[in-house]
Each structure stands twice: as structure tokens, then as C-alpha cells.
Design brief:
OB fold (Dihydrolipoamide Acetyltransferase, E2P); single chain; Rossmann fold; alpha+beta; binds magnesium ion; 2 domains; binds adenosine-5'-triphosphate; elongated
Length: 367
């Protein structure tokens, strides 16, 4: 019997991917998706994150209806949509290459889909004007799309996909062709568009920073499977496995021993209280410490501090990264903010130092 909480969560689900697998047949058959289940909520900015070839585009194509699943079910607001053709699903896609009509004006590109649906001209014009305003392209409405910058084309592609007001918008690495500055601007723009329209966005990227800054929740994928689903904070601070920790942010992996809710590092220091993930038994474990959760100072260790030797000090403006070798021989990175004067009084290369790890900063990993 389900609890009221899970019923409430279920009621919010827009796209329900239920045990979907996809095998591309052939001599060297590929299992592109392997028993994937995820419930994507209404009005959510949901991101699929993972390395090249992990199955992100395949999952989007199945949701959009361009590809049938080999196994499993797909529901939208509780209704099975797996047999509907793409144009019968209230779902639109923004592809990586935009696929605009180059010789048509901005306005016609945006209105084209609505015209094809046979909407009255007045309604098409009104919607186009609203979309132009939304993506801030009113001034360029008569320009051919072949004469637009990459970022402007991107906004037209978005406006075109949003015009029929789909319930779900799929975005497959839509920002990857843009330079860094424009990319950052468009990230903010996309967030704004999502919250203003209330449409569920399913966004694909292999850029971890982009995923962290934009998403309500992230699914981290590898080899056709979802390893972890959570908020950016969850995924960053409590990665379930080494792959997730390694893929997102910078990491130190250390050998340790788990015993009764505490770990002792091979490198020394005291016992750290931890919550081990389910299935991890007492004994040797691998733990994660993020570089920004460690501090370094000169001197000899006292209490829970770890002895270390400085290998390299790298200044990067806002922060200083200190590369060390711990007493155990393990290499370790600590990152200290320069605003707190962190890196100013460090010992030099080759000198002894001590490392302090912040309480709660040690995470046990399921390897
Ligand atoms: N039509 C197809 N026929 C055979 N194999 C395919 C087909 N489409 C995708 N694949 C394979 O399925 C796997 C997943 O591909 P997919 O395009 O979903 O990856 P992705 O996560 O989107 O990667 P990228 O970040 O490079 O875009 C890959 O091994 C790919 O080679
Ligand atoms: Mg892809």
C-alpha cells in the first residue's frame, strides 16, 4: 500500500518512464537503455547528465516518440502514450542543430508549426508576437534566420518549440554550439522561460556545471542506466557512487575503514561520523572529500588533523588549490577561498603541513 506522500509525488508526475530498455539490434547489438525508470514532475527543470554514449538522446527520442522502446512503458499525466506518433504527443523538441528554415523570417519560423496545425491567422500572429517578446527577438522578427547569430537562432528555435504550448519540452544539448559567454546568458534565459511558461523541461547535457546551475533535479546516467536522481545539492554533496562523485565536481577519494557509523582514514586523523549508503558493510571502504571541505596550514598535526607534505600550490584568482601528499602516500587536493585569506600564509612546496577536514565532509561511497 502506498503512503500519502508517495501518492502526492505520483500525482505531480508528468512523464513517467517505467522500466524502459532500448536495444538497437544488429550484429553488434547495443543496449542503449537498460531498465530505466524515472518520474519527471510537472513544471520541473529536469536534466539528464552523463558522458557521451550513455543513452541521453535515446531516452529523449523515446519520450518524443521518434523511437519505440524495446521494453517498458511511457506515460504522460497517467496516460499511456507509447503508441502515439510524435505529432500526437503534447511534447516538443529543440534539437542540437536547431533545424530552422533559413530562408524564412524569424516570425514565420515561429508560426510555421501553428500554421501547419491549421490555426486561424489571427491566433498564429498573436502567439508569434507573444513568443517574440518572450525570447526578446521583437526587433528581428522580419529577418531571415540565416542572417542571425548562433544565440539568436537558438532563441528562435526555442520560441518555435514553445509556440504550441507543449506540456513538455525536450532540449538535447541546445547550448553546446555557443561560446561560453553566450552560453551562460542562455542558461539564465532558459531558466526564466521555464519558470514563466510553467512547462516541464527535460534538458540533456554532458556539462556538469550547466546541470548543477540550471536543474531542479538531475539524473546521472552511465552505460544506459540511471545511477542517481536528486537535486543538484544531493548529487554534489551526497553522491551515491564513485562514478557520480568523479563526474560532478572535483574529488578526493581516500581509503578508509567503516565501523559503527564512523570512518577512520588510512591517512590518519580522528574518526568521522558518516551515514553509509545502504548495502555498504563495515570494513574497508572508499570515501569522498571535496577539495573545498579541507583546509591546510603549516605546522605539525594536533587532534584530528592529518599530516601531509605540500607538492604544489596553484593560485586561480578566487581560490588557491593546494596539492598534497598525505602520510598514507595518497595524493590530496585542498581548495581554499582567497576571500578569507586562506591561501596567503601557506607553507611552500616540500614543507610539512597539516590538513583539517570539515565535520560532515566525509562521504562513504558505494564502489
Ligand atoms: N540508431 C542507432 N543504432 C544503433 N546504435 C545506436 C543508435 N542510436 C544510438 N545508438 C547507440 O546507443 C548508445 C547511446 O546513444 P545516445 O545517442 O543515446 O548517447 P548520448 O548519451 O546522447 O551521447 P552524446 O552525449 O554523445 O550525444 C550509443 O552507444 C550509440 O552508439
Ligand atoms: Mg546525444
Amino acid at each position: 500500500m502506498s503512503t500519502p506522500v508517495s501518492e502526492a509525488a505520483e500525482a505531480q508526475v508528468a512523464i513517467d518512464v517505467d522500466r524502459v530498455s532500448k536495444i538497437f539490434p544488429g550484429e553488434d547489438a547495443v543496449r542503449a537503455l537498460d531498465d530505466v525508470s524515472v518520474g519527471i514532475r510537472r513544471n520541473e527543470f529536469f536534466t539528464l547528465l552523463g558522458p557521451s554514449g550513455c543513452g541521453k538522446t535515446t531516452l529523449l527520442r523515446i519520450i518524443a516518440g521518434f523511437e519505440p522502446p524495446t521494453m517498458g512503458a511511457l506515460r504522460l499525466d497517467g496516460t499511456d502514450i507509447s503508441r502515439l506518433a510524435p505529432d500526437q504527443r503534447p511534447i516538443n523538441t529543440v534539437f542540437q542543430n536547431y533545424a530552422l528554415f533559413p530562408h524564412m523570417s524569424v516570425a514565420r519560423n515561429i508560426g510555421f508549426g501553428l500554421e501547419m496545425l491549421g490555426k486561424p491567422k489571427r491566433e498564429v500572429n498573436e502567439t508569434v508576437d507573444r513568443m517574440l517578446k518572450l525570447v526578446q527577438m521583437e526587433a528581428l522578427k522580419s529577418r531571415k534566420t540565416s542572417a542571425l547569430s548562433g544565440g539568436q537562432q537558438q532563441r528562435v528555435a526555442l520560441a518555435r518549440a514553445l509556440a504550441p504550448h507543449p506540456r513538455v519540452l525536450l532540449l538535447d544539448e541546445p547550448l553546446s554550439a555557443l561560446d561560453l559567454k553566450l552560453r551562460k546568458e542562455m542558461q539564465i534565459e532558459l531558466k526564466r522561460l521555464q519558470s514563466e511558461t510553467g512547462i516541464t523541461f527535460i534538458f540533456v547535457t554532458h556539462d556538469q556545471e550547466e546541470a548543477l546551475t540550471m536543474s531542479d533535479r538531475i539524473a546521472v546516467m552511465r552505460d544506459g542506466r540511471i545511477l542517481q536522481i536528486g537535486s543538484p545539492r544531493d548529487i554534489y554533496q551526497r553522491p551515491a557512487e564513485r562514478f557520480v562523485a568523479n563526474f560532478i565536481g572535483e574529488s578526493n577519494f581516500l581509503d578508509a575503514t567503516l565501523s559503527a557509523g564512523h570512518v577512520t582514514l588510512k591517512a590518519g586523523g580522528g574518526a568521522f561520523a558518516v551515514t553509509a549508503p545502504p548495502g555498504v558493510a563495515d570494513g574497508p571502504v572508499s570515501v569522498l572529500v571535496r577539495p573545498e571541505h579541507a583546509a591546510v596550514r603549516a605546522g605539525s598535526p594536533a587532534g584530528d588533523e592529518l599530516p601531509a607534505t605540500i607538492r604544489n600550490v596553484v593560485y586561480s584568482g578566487d581560490a588557491t588549490t593546494i596539492h598534497l601528499e598525505l602520510g598514507s602516500g595518497e595524493l590530496f587536493k585542498a581548495k581554499m577561498s582567497n576571500s578569507t585569506g586562506g591561501g596567503a600564509t601557506l607553507p611552500s612546496q616540500g614543507e610539512p603541513a597539516v590538513v583539517t577536514i570539515a565535520p560532515g565532509a566525509v562521504t562513504v561511497l558505494k564502489d
